[in-house]
Fold this sequence. Notes:
186 residues; Four Helix Bundle (Hemerythrin (Met), subunit A); 6 helices; 77% helix
Amino acid sequence: MESHRDSLPExxxxxxxxxxxxxxxxxxxxxxxxxxxxxxxxxVAWMLASAATDFLDGLAARRLxxxxxxxxxxxxxxxxxxxxxxxxxxxxxxxYYFPVWGAAILAAxxxxxxxxxxxxxxxxxxxxESARPGKTSAFAVAVAVLLYVLEVQPWALLMLVAGxxxxxxxxxxxxxxxxxxxxxxx
Length: 186
């Protein structure tokens, strides 16, 4: 897990990757609207479009040297908000199914990582970059949510369990990184 300090490109706000990330926030309402109408394939198409912009924003950040602290915050926030919004919709909708326990675990973990990240930013003025364990678990959970939208059982449940196991692993990795950063504050 890397951290990044003050450098000119790190502080840029308006970049191609950040605009692509912002676009993902605007894709959440159409996803939820499609789910509300029972248009599963349309919802999946919006979710795949969101995933494509997620891939493209990372690619653009690396290729165009447009990495930024804002992007390091907004990118995972867009991922988490999309997944948690869809999972929440599935939990509370009569037309879909998603286990409440799965959504609760995901929400608790994201809240813990968010609070830990805010402590690091406040104390060290450092924005932690997403690490491989976090990206892997986010991908697995997103696939699980997609499978729940499509009602592909038992694969949706198996992928959710795998995603939650990866989430536990990534939570441990973030915990170690957070405690290391916090110890440097003292």
